[in-house]
Design a protein that fits this description.
The structure holds two protein chains of two kinds. Chain A has helices spanning 60-67, 90-100, 116-120, 122-127, 133-142, 158-170, 188-205, 216-219, 242-255; strands at 16-27, 34-45, 49-53, 75-80, 83-84, 101-104, 176-180, 209-212, 224-229, 232-238. By secondary structure, chain A is an alpha/beta fold. The longest helix of chain A has 18 residues, at 188-205. Chain A is globular, with a radius of gyration of 18 Å. Among the domains of chain B are: 98-212; 411-453; 454-538 and 702-848, no CATH class; 545-695, no CATH class. Chain B contains 24 helices and 24 strands. In chain B, strands 4, 5, 6, 7, 8, 9, 10 and 11 form an eight-stranded mixed beta sheet that branches. A six-stranded mixed β-barrel of chain B has the order 16-17-22-19-21-20. In chain B, a hairpin with a 2-residue loop joins strand 16 and strand 17 (574-581). In chain B, helix 1 crosses helix 9 (307-349), helix 7 packs parallel to helix 10 and helix 11 runs parallel beside helix 22 (762-799). The longest helix of chain B is centred in the N-terminal third of the chain and has 48 residues, at 245-292. Chain B is globular and about 95 Å long. Classes of the chains: A alpha/beta, B alpha+beta. Chains A and B meet through helix 2 and helix 4 of A and helix 13, helix 21 and helix 24 of B.
């Protein structure tokens, strides 16, 4: 029973792509203050697929935003590779996101004015560099998008749009891809396609992926699931299955009965 | 429902403010136009009220019949003055001797432009002159000058000034005093003044006769103005006319009311154009606001709100917004009108004090127009909103644009309809039918609307073309794509800018064409190389000594030289141009004129030559007799028509022998034509002729180019005036572009957040928005230039039979308009771009 296992020791055998150490993050002040992250320390191994789970308000999105350089931390440090994010200005953070991070959003967030191919090449265009054509072609083939390259987002289905977004996130070979509820807006079939691709990009291309999700089925595709509740890491599950994830969730719902309602 | 509307409005303050800006501007223009007109009228009335202050009755010379105020030769005589002074009802009498004069400035040129230079008598007590330096003139060779004269002439206390009237010799005077007027003014309505002793003033105006241009009489105590007028009647007799000062001031006011009426129409026209433009802005903003609220509206429909309720809710929002905005606009407009009054008054009328009049119609009209326009503009978006199906509430946001085929076809048809209206109207206009002129004007308006409808269709290819300029930068490319993203929105925004640019381009094109046509005609007909003539703006027509013509003819290389005398005379009871010359045949030849009938050789006394249409006007032909009375003539003279000329703008009018010029208003020649012999060096001849005329400061020697530039100077002023119109249109357009951009940025917050998350820098974001802005602005300007050229061309073609045969494109001006459009785009982009670059990434990408 995974639940019976003690928390796994920190993975030290591989290099860590993203590291958070003693991160605190609070919003508002005084009575209205909400502490989103309390002293969170976590490492994400390079070339691994990690899911972050937790009920609404557990701080999982905040954690991802802090890791991706979109939000600042109150205390503690975040490293992407060897770069410390703490204390970086907007310019440096922007450059870091551009060069080292890929994003996949729940709402796809493709530019409606650009074709699928232009959307895929968007991060490279923003950086003013040329994407590796062989690499891009390989991703496009893997995602089965070759027929759709000249289409505008409005001409694509939700699943196709999210596959374009996946290709976009990987096109510049970022150090880490952050996926925020990537299957939240998709039907089961499209979700499967997207998750299988994310799995393959880790297995075949050695991509590092951190995914926020509330779907145990999606989390089951990951190598490891980190559970958050009330701004703290409460479980760390390796080699999860859908069932073990659901069991874990039930388990800590029992231990922390009100966590699900916490806002 | 109203509660929901109000709460909804409160929740969207930023958008409300943007929408209302257009309304505020439109109603502010209307209000300020009305206030400015009324205030200028009041200020001018104050000025008129200054005239002969304190007097009760004015005695003035009889106006020469039908000769207007062109010349006062007969003043109020000394006998009449004595008779007035002897009346028991008279307490005080002040005498005025004032007429136009030429004075030479420091540079030897005639002082003054559009405002006249006057000679006055220092002793005139009816004007409050205040000495600032020196003293009053005591001898006939001393003069005091107004502060305005000092400014314009460059001369000052202790300097010598040369002045002369039409029929007096140049005389040198010592400036012994400098004065201003009550209230610290430098001039009265911008005129420059020289104050002489009374006898010297009389010499300049009446040739030394003891006479006055006006006598102001104050009644003894207990005598009313009307009683005084009645008691003075016998003293004044038939030699002069008496009028109460009140009646005189009323007349002045009535005259200025006529003049200010035109200014009022002009300003109101500006206001209406601003309102017309704001219709586009308001409709556009409402469409965008409603597009952003589709989900909300669909939700309302889903929970049972009827279509009528949705329409009414949007219209209620428009009505409320229109009311608040137009009240603010009316306030701003009234304040601006009041402020502008002093600018206008100081700039053009030179009054120390201005009167601000606020007619109750000003705020009322502004609010009525503001509310009306807002509600009308919101009508189409409101009805469209009501058609939102409830199911929209459940659908995802991404949707394809609506097709624009219907709008495009309608636009094409409307444009053609308007163009047809213009062509039909103009073809018939010159038969004198006003209805057709209306048809042309309405046609032009219809073309506007048509092109505005077409803009959506045109936006794709044109914006793509414009965008090619930016494609080197990725941010620029995104900006260009954004500009083409919503063709309707881009189109309406650009259309607002288009209107102003169309107006100025069409007017500038037409004026340039007229100018070029005149020049072309001139070049093809005029044989003379040089002209001796004065500036068109001098107070007194520029003349020169005819004796000098012999010296001009003697200059080496001069073939022929013909001087012309000019007068406006009574010919069979109508005002006609009459010319006199020593060498009619030579003059006609130099002007490229053509003799149709009879002869133009050696005009004898009692003979005249005239062009065909002037003769037709009087129903006269070869051999017929006409009666002429010249400006200074005391009797009517009979002339027999001995020659008929073909119509030609340069030779039209009547010609008589040079001996009659003594009876002309200007007894000296005003113009001379010099034909340079073939092979002679024109520049050398010019220098030699200039040397002959060295002592004639009023005139100069000009070649074709200089002469043309002088006669067409009016067109240059007109073109400058219409640039003001452009400036106005540009201001409105900036607001329109800002509106569209800010709303677009709001709509695309998520997209911007995504781009920033993916590593787009603030600089790139700013550039993207700026390119979108400049592209929209340039698109509007290009449309405007295109439409303006088209309208200009249509009108020019229609006028071609009337002699406007050349179509000229004012390239420099058009380049300037496009430059201005780029500037508009850059300015409009500032706020939205900053906003876009500061977008909160987290807020933008978090899902609700």
């Amino acid at each position: 029973m995974p639940l019976a296992n003690p928390p796994a020791p920190q993975i030290t055998r591989t290099r860590s792509a993203v590291t958070a150490s003693n991160v605190w993050r609070a919003y508002g002040s005084g009575e209205a203050q909400v502490v989103a992250l309390r002293d969170v320390s976590v490492q994400f191994a390079s070339g691994a697929f990690t899911a972050i789970m937790g009920p609404s308000g557990s701080g999982k999105s905040t954690l991802m935003h802090c890791l991706a350089g979109l939000d600042t931390t109150d205390r503690g440090t975040v490293h992407i590779g060897d770069t410390a994010l703490t204390g970086l200005g907007d310019k440096a953070l922007t450059k870091l996101r551009r060069d080292k991070i890929g994003f996949i959003f729940q709402q796809f967030n493709l530019l409606p004015t650009l074709t699928a191919e232009e959307n895929i090449l968007l991060p490279a265009s923003i950086a003013g560099v040329k994407a590796d054509p062989e690499w891009v072609a390989r991703i496009i083939a893997t995602l089965d998008l070759s027929e759709r390259l000249t289409h505008k987002p409005t001409e694509l289905s939700g699943g196709q749009q999210q596959r374009v977004a996946c290709a976009r996130a990987l096109a510049t070979r970022p150090e880490v891809v952050f996926a925020d509820e990537p299957t939240g807006n998709l039907d089961t079939r499209s979700s499967g396609e997207v998750l299988r691709f994310l799995r393959r990009s880790v297995d075949d291309f050695g991509q590092t992926i951190v995914m926020v999700t509330h779907d145990p089925g999606a989390a089951a595709y990951a190598d490891r699931v980190v559970f958050l509740a009330d701004g703290q890491i409460v479980e760390d599950l390796h080699r999860p299955t859908a069932d073990s994830v659901i069991d874990t969730m039930r388990g800590f719902e029992n231990r922390v009965p009100l966590a699900g309602e916490a806002r | 429902m109203l509660r929901a509307t109000l709460k909804g409005m409160a929740a969207r303050k930023a958008r409300l403010i943007l929408t209302s800006l257009a309304v505020v501007l439109g109603s502010a223009f209307i209000a300020s136009a009305l206030v400015l007109t009324a205030s200028i009228r009041a200020t001018v009335a104050d000025l008129s009220g200054d005239a002969y202050r304190g007097a009760d009755v004015l005695v003035q010379p009889l106006e020469p019949e039908n000769r207007g105020d062109r010349l006062v030769r007969d003043g109020v005589t000394a006998e009449t003055l004595a008779a007035i002074e002897s009346s028991e009802d008279v307490a005080e009498v002040s005498t005025t001797v004032s007429w136009m004069v030429n004075a030479l400035g420091e540079d030897g040129k005639i002082v003054g432009g559009f405002a006249p230079t006057l000679s006055v008598n220092w002793g005139d007590a009816s004007v409050e002159r205040e000495l600032r330096e020196g003293r009053a003139p005591e001898t006939d060779r001393e003069v005091a000058v107004s502060a305005q004269f000092v400014t314009e002439s460059g001369l000052g206390l202790g300097d010598t000034v040369t002045a002369y009237a039409l029929d007096t010799d140049e005389t040198a005077y010592e400036i012994v005093g400098v004065y201003g007027y009550s209230g610290g003014r430098d001039s009265l309505s911008g005129a420059t003044e020289l104050a002489f002793t009374t006898p010297e003033a009389q010499r300049l105006v009446f040739g030394g006769e003891d006479a006055y241009t006006a006598v102001a009489v104050t009644a003894a105590s207990g005598v009313s103005a009307d009683d005084l007028l009645a008691s003075l009647e016998p003293a004044v007799g038939d030699e002069a006319q008496a009028i109460t000062r009140q009646a005189y001031v009323d007349d002045l006011n009535a005259e200025s009311a006529e003049a200010t009426k035109l200014i009022g129409y002009f300003l109101l026209g500006f206001g209406l154009i601003a309102v017309f433009v704001s219709v586009f802005l308001i409709a556009n903003t409402f469409s965008i606001v409603i597009a952003g609220r589709l989900k909300e509206i669909a939700m309302m429909r889903a929970i049972g709100a009827g279509r009528g309720q949705i329409t009414r809710s949007v219209l209620a929002e428009a009505g409320l917004l229109g009311a608040v905005a137009s009240v603010v606009g009316a306030g701003i407009g009234v304040a601006a009108g009041a402020g502008l009054t002093s600018v206008v008054a100081n700039g053009f009328l030179d009054t120390a004090s201005t009167s601000v009049a606020i007619p109750w119609t000003a705020p009322l009209a502004a609010v009525a127009v503001g509310v009306g326009v807002t509600v009308l503009s919101a009508l189409v978006p409101a009805v469209r909103a009501s058609k939102t199906p409830p199911v929209e509430a459940m659908r995802a946001a991404a949707k394809a644009d609506k097709p624009i085929l219907g709008v495009t076809v309608t636009g094409l048809l409307v444009t053609l309809l308007g163009a047809t209206g213009i062509v039909l109207g103009l073809n018939e206009t010159f038969d004198g039918d006003n209805m057709n002129l209306m048809s042309a004007a309405v046609g032009a308006g219809v073309v506007f609307v048509g092109v505005a409808l077409l803009t959506a269709w045109l936006s794709k290819p044109v914006v793509a073309l414009l965008g090619a300029v930016w494609s080197w930068s990725f941010a620029g490319r995104l900006g260009r794509l954004n500009a083409a993203r919503n063709p309707r929105r881009t189109a309406v925004t650009a259309a607002a800018l288009m209107i102003g640019v169309t107006l100025v381009t069409a007017t500038a094109t037409l004026l340039t064409s007229v100018k070029e046509s005149l020049a072309a005609q001139f070049e093809s007909s005029i044989q003379a190389e040089l002209f001796i003539t004065g500036p068109v703006t001098s107070s007194v027509p520029a003349t020169f000594d005819p004796e000098l013509m012999d010296d001009v003819r003697a200059v080496d290389g001069v073939d022929t030289a013909v001087e012309l005398y000019y007068d406006v005379a009574q010919v069979d009871g109508t005002e006609q141009s009459v010319n006199a010359t020593t060498d009619l045949e030579g003059g006609i030849a130099l002007f490229g004129g053509e003799v149709v009938e009879g002869t133009v050789e050696n005009l004898a006394e009692g003979q005249t030559v005239v062009n065909e249409s002037s003769a037709d006007l009087l129903g006269a032909g070869l051999g017929d007799t006409v009666a002429m009375t010249f400006s200074r003539g005391t009797e009517s003279r009979e002339f027999t028509i001995v020659g008929i000329l073909a119509d030609n703008a340069d030779t039209d009018g009547w010609y008589v022998d040079r001996s009659y010029a003594t009876e002309f208003y200007t007894p000296k020649p005003t113009t001379a034509l010099v034909d340079v012999a073939d092979g002679a060096d024109v520049e050398e001849v010019t220098a030699d002729v200039e040397a002959v005329l060295a002592d004639e400061p009023a005139v100069s020697v000009q070649n074709h180019e200089e002469y043309l530039a002088q006669v067409t100077v009016f067109f240059d002023y007109a073109i400058i005036a219409i640039q003001l119109l452009l400036a106005l249109a540009m201001i409105v357009a900036v607001i329109g572009v800002v509106n569209t951009l800010v709303l677009s940025v709001l709509e695309r917050t998520r997209e911007l957040g995504m781009l920033r998350a993916m590593g787009m820098t603030r600089g790139q974001t700013t550039r993207m928005v700026t390119v979108e802005s400049v592209t929209i602005a340039l698109f509007g300007a290009l449309l405007g230039v295109g439409t303006g050229l088209l309208l200009g061309w249509i009108v020019q073609q229609a006028l071609a039979p009337s002699g406007i045969e050349e179509f000229a494109v004012p390239t420099a001006l058009i380049a300037a308009y496009l430059g201005a459009a780029v500037l508009v785009g850059l300015l409009a982009a500032i706020a939205p771009a900053v906003r876009a670059s500061k977008v909160d990434i987290l807020g933008a990408i978090s899902y609700e």
